Amino acid sequence: MQNHLEEFVRQFKWALSSRQVFEWQKMTRPENLTDIQRAARFFYLQHHAFAGKVTGQTFGTASTGPAINLLRIEENLSAAWQRLSGTYVEHLPWLECAERYDRAHTFHYMDPPYWSDTALPVR
Question: Residues 2-47: pLDDT tens digits?
Fold first, then answer.
């Protein structure tokens, strides 16, 4: 997306939040899509799936309307980028991350494993 944001956003022009579109996207084989289409498919499924699950996805609904406004994708991505622009994002084991960055002036949030949820794998 970093290099093709406009094309990524264009994938959602005229798109709707729909259970049927969600099911069609799930049935679409990613290997038959371009990189941009594959990214858009992943984004659509993640934002419409109950609990943001990557596997075993079901369409998430609410009585207040869809959680994502497909007209504001670029604006929402820009806001997320701005929030993260002054941070470091690491993909390390928690202890290695803490040892590397722990200082008197740092704040860490390490999302713990979800022990009681059998639907989510624990690593």
Answer: 899 999 999 999 999 999 999 999 999 999 999 999 999 999 999 9
Query: Computed from CA positions of residues 49, 84, 82, 37, in that sequence, does the dihedral angle turn out positive or negative?
Result: negative
- Report how many domains make up the chain: 1
Inside any domain, residue 92: no
Q: Can you say whether residue 31 is alpha, beta or left, with left for phi > 0 and alpha for psi between -120 and 50 degrees?
A: alpha
> Which element (helix H / strand E) includes 58?
none
Does residue 99 sit within a domain? no
Nearest alpha-carbon partner for 46 in 34, 35, 59, 65:
59
* Rounded Cα distance, 28 and 44, in Å: 12
- Report residue 46: phi and psi, to 5°: -65, -40
Chain-centroid distance of CA 23 in Å reads 18
Q: Residue 65 belongs to what domain range?
A: 5-87
